[in-house]
Amino acid sequence: MRTTGPHALEMSGSDLQRMVDALAEKIGRSVAINDPSVHLRCASRHFGDEDEVRVHAVLQRDGGSAVIGHMLSQGITGWTGPGVIPARPDLHMRARLCRPLRCRSELLGLLMVIDPESLTESDFEAIEDSAAAMAALLYQDFLAEDAQRVAGEAAVLELLCGAAEQRAAALRTLDEQGWLRSGHRATVSVADVVAPGKEKAQIEVALRVALEAVARHRLAEFAFAVEGNRGFLLQTAPASKEHLRDQGAIVTKQVRDALGESARCVVGIGTAADGLAEARISREQAATAARSARMLPDAADVVFWEDLGVYATLLEIPEDRLTPRLLPAALTRLIANDPHGRLVRTLAVYLDNAGSGPDAAAALHIHRTSLYYRLHQIEQITGLSLSNGDNRLALHLGVRVMALLDGPS
Questions:
Q1: For the chain, what is the mean pLDDT?
Q2: Which pLDDT tens digit goes with each residue over 167-213?
Q3: What share of the chain is helix, strand, coil (3-state, %, to 5)?
Q4: Is the dihedral of CA 331, 349, 271, 203 positive or negative?
Q5: CA distance 236 to 174
Q6: Checking phi first, is residue 64 left (phi over 0); if not, alpha (psi -120 to 50) or beta?
Q7: pLDDT of residue 161
């Protein structure tokens, strides 16, 4: 979301650039300041110590998702003093001194100097002296930026998740502040993250980095908010399904790069609602799609609500009610008498193929005679005739509920 007025940022930005240039000249080294999301804020001229990551960052304003992930994986957002980010030869990245810039415990920026082993004691003293002044300057921006960021994200959350009165107030706020251009369509994507062993703050930073990567260059048409391990991306710009899928893929990749391969990020995408006033509908759909990605076996990381089919209905069941008690008694009997799951799979494939014996046999790679033998066994165990439409519907819904119960969650 847009934050402070451009004049204030221009003034503080020019002062920060002068500090960076002065420090670089004093220690004879390239100096850079990144924001807490590891995007480049300002940099000195090169002193012959630059690597490919720095060159790329100067040109593109960040070093790329893999580099950001490597830096964040060191826990730098929690550092209270200087430390070393190890080199990554595979990323063409040399080691860096990272000096967090903090004021009143708030992380405001990250001062970076390449090749820390060659720094002298006087270099470290100059860095410490400059860091204090830089942090004080950045704190001025933080007070203004953070107030507007918090207000903007709160408005987005209330618009997407709040009650009717909250949504109406949020819509007025977004319009009055000019934070989001209203359009005829509003599409919401919801990103959910599961990251064992990662702190809440790490997950929130990773989500912000990922959502910023999508929204950064189109702030008038995009807004986002982060709440715990969930991120919301709201856009009023028209977009094709392929473009929305690409956006989701960017988010999932950025989060994995930041948190490591043990983390999983899924993105659900709702249909385009009729303007911002109806964006809540798209958010509800997106949240359901994200839930399906978490729960269904072999689900993709990016899922559209419109592709869910019957799961769009089944996933309206609250998680605490989605238990084996929902399964038809006949299906429960079949499961109990089918320890290897062969008959249950046969039933699922048969029903998925609309009761077509030839199609089901082909899908299972078995002879048609074998299929009919198994179907006869299923009818004997369940006590239900598969020629009855209501029986097939009840069993098919039960099989789909089983998929939700057996998924990765």
A1: 90
A2: 999 999 988 888 887 778 999 999 999 999 887 877 888 898 899 88
A3: 55, 15, 30
A4: positive
A5: 13
A6: left
A7: 96
3-state secondary structure 45-80: CCCCCCCHHHHHHHHHCCCCHHHHHHHHHCCHHHCC
Q: Which of the two residues, 5 and 360, has the higher pLDDT score?
A: 360
Q: Which residues contact 89 (CB under 8 A, 6 or more apart)?
A: none
Q: What is the pTM of this model?
A: 0.73
Q: With contact defined as beta carbons under 8 Å apart, do 203 and 229 qualify?
A: yes
CA-CA distance, 216 to 262, in Å (whole number)?
Answer: 27
Six token digits for residue 302? 């990016």
State whether residue 314 is helix, strand or coil: helix
DSSP sequence for 240-289: -HHHHHHHHHHHHHHHHHHH-TT-EEEEEEPPPBSSGGGHHHHHHHHHHH
What are φ and ψ of residue 387, in 5° steps? -85, -10
Strand partners, 222: 235
pLDDT digits (tens, 9 = 90+) for 55-99: 999 888 778 888 998 998 899 998 999 999 999 999 999 999 999
Contact between 225 and 200 (Cβ < 8 Å): no
Asked if 247 and 202 count as a contact pair (C-beta separation under 8 A), the reply is no
Do 215 and 189 contact (CB within 8 A), yes or no?
no
Length of the chain: 409
Contact of 333 with 382, CB cutoff 8 Å? yes
How many CB atoms neighbour CB 303 within 10 A? 25
Burial of 390 (0-12, 13-18, 19+ CB in 10 A): exposed
Q: Which of 231-235, 245-249, 296-300 has the lowest mean pLDDT?
A: 296-300
206-237, pLDDT tens digit by residue? 898 899 888 876 766 899 999 989 999 999 98
- Start-to-end CA span in the chain (Å): 32
Q: What is the DSSP letter of 215?
A: H
The gap from C-alpha 91 to its chain's centroid, in whole angstroms, comes to: 23
More confident residue, 198 or 328: 328
Q: Which structure tokens are listed for 241?
A: 């399904």
Q: What is the CA radius of gyration of the chain?
A: 27
